[in-house]
Design goal:
This protein is of the alpha+beta class. It has helices at residues 24-30, 54-57, 65-72, and strands at 3-7, 13-17, 49-52, 81-83, 97-100. The radius of gyration is 12 Å and the shape is globular. The relative contact order is 0.30.
């Protein structure tokens, strides 16, 4: 069983089970971690913005041009910012740690 750790906007930490092939945004939304995923994963809204733990940031596939453009628009952008809709869950992400970003949208 592969899982990940998420810290909510309120500072609560949870360990959640991943589902192969699901977008991380879908998991965070369905586990009710404060992520809405308004655009359904189209990189249009940034309501799924997360901060990936620095130890994990370089282990993820690089963000695409659309994701980078959307992240550049956010006032709370950090070096480890990602849109969770662009991260597909798989066994290789077992142990991933992230924090849900403030709701800028």
């Amino acid at each position: 069983m592969a899982d990940f750790q998420v810290t909510t906007r309120e500072g609560e930490t949870h360990r959640l089970e991943g589902v192969d092939g699901w977008r991380l945004m879908e998991l965070l939304r369905d586990y009710k971690m404060g992520v809405e995923g308004i655009c359904g994963g189209q990189t249009d809204c940034a309501s799924c913005h997360v901060y990936v733990d620095p130890g994990w940031a370089s282990r993820l596939p690089a963000p695409g041009d659309e994701e980078e453009a959307k992240l550049d628009e956010l006032p709370g952008w950090e070096e480890t910012s990602r849109l969770s809709c662009q991260i597909i869950w798989g066994e290789a992400l077992d142990g991933l740690a992230l924090t849900v970003a403030p709701n800028w949208v």
